[in-house]
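As agreed, record copied across for absentees:
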Amino acid sequence: MEDEYFLAQDLVDFFQDLGVQVLGPAASVSEALKLLESAEVQGAILDVNLRGERVYPVADALRQRHVPFVFASGYGGELEPRAYADVPRCIKPVDFGVLVQTLVEQMDGQRAPRLSA
């Protein structure tokens, strides 16, 4: 078993202990996209690299659905495409409390009324 699997399972356990219903984890981009089709998602944490594949198709699908998300990555944002410059990033090793707070802030921002100028 990979360390990433254990980290993902620890994160699932952490969220479930908070009373959150968790969908996943997904081990690949195609698996994550299938999960998105199978249920309503209110927020997501995306590891930028899933078994050597960048997770951007999932990020794009979440954006199309207006679902807030956070990247978890072992890399800084300087390597990411500009299209994702506004997405919060938590650098591994991730502090689960910080990750939860970052996702909650994203979710709250989605719910806030948007004012036009």
User: Anything to note?
Assistant: The CA atoms of residues 75 and 91 lie 7 Å apart. The chain has a mean pLDDT of 81.
